[in-house]
Amino acid sequence: MTLPETLVFPEGFLWGTATAAHQIEGGNTNSDWWAFEHQVGSPVVEPSGDACDSFHRWEEDLDLVQQMGLNCYRFSVEWARIEPAPGEFSQAALDHYRRICQGVRDRGLIPVVTFHHFTSPIWLSERGGFEWEEAPARFANYVAHVTASLGDEIGLGCTINEPNIVSFMGYGLGFFPPAVSNAYDRVEAVNANFIAAHSLAVEALRAGPGTFPVGLTLSMAELVARDGGEAARDEFQETMEDVYLRAVRNDDFLGVQCYTRFHFGPNGFEGPPQGTRQTPMGYEWYPECVGATVRRAANVSGIPIVVTENGVSTSDDSQRIAYVSDALASLHGALLDGVDVRGYFLWSLLDNFEWTLGYEQQFGIVSVDRSTFARTMKPSASFFGGIAQSSTLTVSNSGAQNPSNNEV
Questions:
Q1: Is pTM, for the whole model, over 0.85?
Q2: What residues in the chain have per-residue pLDDT under 70?
Q3: CB 45, CB 360: distance < 8 Å
Q4: Is residue 195 situated within a structural domain?
Q5: pLDDT of residue 4
Q6: Has residue 261 been placed in a domain?
């Protein structure tokens, strides 16, 4: 007979869920992504449209986070709304996001604010986006204006969300704006500009008002090479991870965002091995990526880690519960090994707009009716909330039951 084991997380651990403005707000018409979605021949399967109407329903969203018993909420402020033209700042937009920060605080939650989550104003994209030599300074100026309005309410500040994905998907694979493919020299140039923008933004955030930890969030995966794939893995690792991990060593924390593991062979990147269980995103089902990535991130960066995104796309919520359980068990193992991990944020609060894939992918622990925008909490919301309230996870010593050879 297998007895259950209770895993205890540290006192003060951050338990939250995450969203991004463009994915939930709706009507973000002044952003590069809105333009990208509506281009003829765009790879985006459907436009974001009204998204989850969270620009108007944000209080309802915060009520859900509070009801779950979480202690944090991570969301992004939208540059395209705040600075609709170069140097022209919208006080109404700044006031809107300040009200959200205050609403988070009023519900006993910590506001975790991301300043750039994949989207930029159209005026920036017209000047070359983050290839433009002035982009880092323009971003820092925007961050300074937002901090002047919100800084005293912010609990944690995330400068840029997954800049490595923006560069790689925009200039390597062509699935993000500006939809350029195989321009890997430009990927590296954009990475360099993102790092410069992050550094300047950290200075702006630390200048106040407010005193709060500041960091970057980075997309990571466990990277595995079979014989002959080591060079390809190492090249990918340097461009996608290490260049950033070295750059953040003076930050207060690093946000690790992980979902799976990647495989490399003699010819480069390979998909999941044949017969491997996959999610609807085409990812290998591998919740243990959490423990692997936080270990590596902490080792290279030398700073505290917060898992600012982890989750799974599935229409079967029992599978989401299984994934999160295994992911947190993996994270707990890293904690036992002495890795300084401060928190875990589940992606995502809502079933929302998943970029080029539109509304097909379901990452949320709350479903959203596409016609009425009615929110309905899934069982995984109660499950995750229970873990957060007790800071404990009960697992079987035999491990979770995850049958192979099935799409979740």
A1: yes
A2: 1-3, 397-408
A3: yes
A4: yes
A5: 80
A6: yes
Q: What tokens does 50 get?
A: 């009204």
- Percent of the chain exceeding pLDDT 70 equals 96
Dihedral sign computed on CA atoms, order 5, 315, 259, 283:
positive
Residues of the domain holding 12: 4-393
Residue 374 domain flag = yes
CATH number at residue 360: 3.20.20.80
User: Domains in the chain: how many in total?
Assistant: 1
**Do 349 and 76 form a contact (C-beta atoms < 8 A)?**
no
Is residue 348 domain-resident?
Answer: yes
